[in-house]
Design goal:
Two copies of one chain form a homodimer. The first copy, chain A, is of the alpha/beta class and 405 residues long. Helix content of chain A is 37%, strand content 21%. Chain A has a five-stranded mixed β-sheet with strand order 5-4-3-6-10, sandwiched between helices. Chain A has a five-stranded mixed β-sheet with strand order 13-12-11-14-15. The longest helix of chain A is centred in the last third of the chain and has 25 residues. The radius of gyration of chain A is 23 Å and the shape is globular. The two termini of chain A are 12 Å apart. The model of chain A has no long low-confidence stretch (mean pLDDT 91). At the A-B interface, helix 1, strand 13 and helix 10 of A face helix 1, strand 13 and helix 10 of B. The structure holds a DNA duplex (30 and 30 nucleotides).
DNA sequence: TCCTATTTGACTTTTCAACGGACAATATGG
DNA sequence: CCATATTGTCCGTTGAAAAGTCAAATAGGA
């Protein structure tokens, strides 16, 4: 039940059916490969002839290819179809406050070259030229991975609606910074930029899986230096009017709570960020202190290790975080009613310690009867959700549904 | 950038372009009537011939009609087209805890028969037969308004995803109650049921206006006995996985706050509902007291009148509510990044007293730089947003975009 | 080994709707 | 009266799905 905007619509032309069915076929091939033309026709409930035309068009364009012949119990053997991921790649970049990570993937998001990283340079100009050089070298060193289709970049901050400027990235000190144009100029490749929490959600949305899980509304909550949240509704990222929707990190947990970096009091982020957990461990607010030297301090990973080895103070700090995490998730669940919540970030390493607390405090705040059935899925750091999201920025557009009506 | 669900898609057929363009044309006629075929063709950027076919089809079906001939500076005069709202109507029903309101509208939501009301019977069976009788009598008394296309019902509670059962309506004491089938059986008319906050949002989405305002993401917050919220994203209501999304009334303002009817502590609703405001006025929590007799108590409208006449205690109570309202709106804005917030409910009568406080506390919690630009629009009770939303339940489906891909 | 049934993928004809252009009807201004 | 402009209709063309046909490939049974 969508309203058509009388000031912004897309009329259908003669080839609109083809555009639509082409994308459906492509997505089915992606989800169920290997698959034959006949199977495709059965799945789509159209004639084999119509499918053949679409498939041959896709083959001609090099988007899919005809692989080995398959087996059937009887009759002519089918020719299997696959999404063509050979000799093309995407560069995924994850910009974080201290280090920047780079990975090369194929066009369905599978890693091709291991993750490399380097310290994040705060000066934007220097950063751009450094990053461009690294990417050029990486692609030159691995000619076997083929042509690069584009660069996907993920940042811990807000991106404007055109995806070309960083509006505000507090932990990087970047403010209204054009990033797309300089990088595109420096690399000669198409670039997409996205907020990291949202990108994590994108990664999950486009994750190649068994294919028997249907698209459901979900939320990705990334607990890290900040709190990144991505919301997916009906197969689409929630963006809002200025492309800053989903900033659940700055909804209130307690309006009288501790001051948050955003200026407000008692934001969820101020309770559950890594800094908040560490602050509880140390018994003082680290946010007030001038830029602690990373090496001199214990990190969240150290804290989790301490907790695992039995340190009571570390355990208590994590339990508090777990409680606040669950309470905040309750607000998220009541707001968007998702089928599933993905949780990422360093804290997932302590999931065995905090799961019970998170779940029980989530239940405390969610409405009966349906809200409490929400599934929680932990995404370990080893899954590289941010980098996979960055890769999805490059690969997903060619699988997206056409815009109609 | 929507992902196509490989398990739930709609392939395009030969007549998909027609279905799409038909709905676009219909929406354009609705938004810009009176309009000629030639104008329509220009707006849609298609041939006049194609438009003529669609228009004649719509006329044949009785959905639009050809009215008076228009004026042009030169050349053949155009025949104007209008959405045909003659001799058909929708019945809008607003079920509230104490009274139930009924209105009859035409199919673009304009009132035809004034609002009538009767006390809400708590026993569902009695209620259904009473309501059905009232509707039958109403339609019989006003034969001039033509045939009834359906009944739209709005309830202060959660509705299941099929729209047939009330999952939970705390203030009515209804719990997992089938309402659609009995009412349809008793009236012989199609029935749609929706949550009242969401229906208010629907009303605004389908409000017939100048037509030069484009569809933007927005939120409707209805402050009343409870707190109803409807969220519209890209011309569509946010529903979530179990049709209970948008329950922002139960996000936290303070996790240590007062107990809410939902069982959690410090929900936004517990701070800004009419009962909360009245409780502050009386200096004690009215929620704990056994069902106060309405007549014996002062109502929120009385309280607002007192405030307007200078009563300091009443003003203070409203100011507190205003502050909490603004703070909660901050969370909503950060979560969904809307272009506009509509505010409805009894409290809008005190808007002159609370506006400054609401706006400043909203600003306190919203993220820079874009979040603070959100527009706030007050919807007075005299606009009947709930009833118009109920009417939209009946009339909107025929204008909705077809589902494709 | 031959025949039948089955399955795949290519191909042909039909139908639907947009596309592109032509045309009659209607009006204005010189 | 004529040139020009505008609206709405009509007709042939074209793109794509719908429906059906056919050859190729293969398995299994007689």
């Amino acid at each position: 039940m969508r309203r058509i905007d009388p000031n912004n619509f897309r009329v259908a032309t003669r080839d609109t059916p083809r555009q639509i069915n082409r994308q459906i076929a492509l997505n089915l091939i992606r989800a169920r490969q290997p698959i034959s033309r006949a199977d495709l026709a059965r799945s789509m409930n159209v004639r084999r002839g119509a499918v053949s035309l679409i498939v041959n068009e896709l083959i001609e364009e090099g988007i899919i290819f005809e692989g080995a012949t398959g087996e059937t119990s009887r009759g002519r053997k089918p020719k299997f179809l696959f999404v063509d991921t050979r000799l093309r790649c995407a560069v995924a970049v994850d910009i974080r406050p201290t280090r920047t990570y780079v990975m090369v993937t194929d066009l369905v998001g599978r890693p091709l070259v291991g993750v490399t990283s380097f310290p994040t340079e705060r000066d934007p100009k220097v950063f751009v030229s450094e990053l461009a050089a690294k990417i050029r070298r990486l692609l030159a060193d691995h000619e076997e991975i083929g042509e690069c289709a584009g660069i996907g970049i993920v940042v811990p901050g807000m991106v404007d609606r055109t995806g070309s400027r960083i509006l505000f990235a507090p932990r990087l000190g970047w403010h209204d910074l054009p990033l797309l144009e300089p990088l595109q100029a420096a690399t000669g490749l198409p670039v997409s930029i996205e907020n990291s929490g949202r990108a994590c959600a994108l990664a999950k949305m486009w994750a190649t899986r068994g294919g028997d899980d249907t698209t459901a509304d979900f939320v990705f909550v990334s607990v890290s230096d900040g709190l990144g949240v991505g919301v997916v509704v009906k197969g689409e990222l929630l963006r809002g009017q200025h492309n800053v929707a989903g900033e659940f990190g700055h909804i209130a947990l307690s309006i009288e709570g501790p001051r948050c970096a955003c200026g407000a009091n008692g934001c969820w982020e101020a309770y559950v960020s890594n800094l908040a957990t560490l602050s509880r461990y140390f018994g003082r607010n680290l946010a007030d202190e001038p830029l602690p030297l990373e090496s001199a301090m214990i990190t969240i990973d150290d804290l989790i290790a301490l907790a695992h080895s039995g340190d009571a103070k570390a355990r208590a700090a994590l339990q508090s975080t777990a409680r606040y995490l669950g309470l905040g998730l309750g607000s998220v669940v009541n707001a968007v009613d998702p089928a599933r919540i993905y949780i990422g970030g360093e804290i997932t390493a302590a999931w065995d310690l905090i799961e019970v607390t998170v779940r029980s405090s989530l239940k405390e705040r969610t409405l009966r009867p349906v809200g409490r059935r929400v599934e929680i899925v932990v995404v370990p750091a080893s899954d590289y959700p941010r980098l996979k999201g960055a890769a999805a920025l490059v690969s997903a557009p060619s699988f997206a549904a056409p815009v109609v009506a």
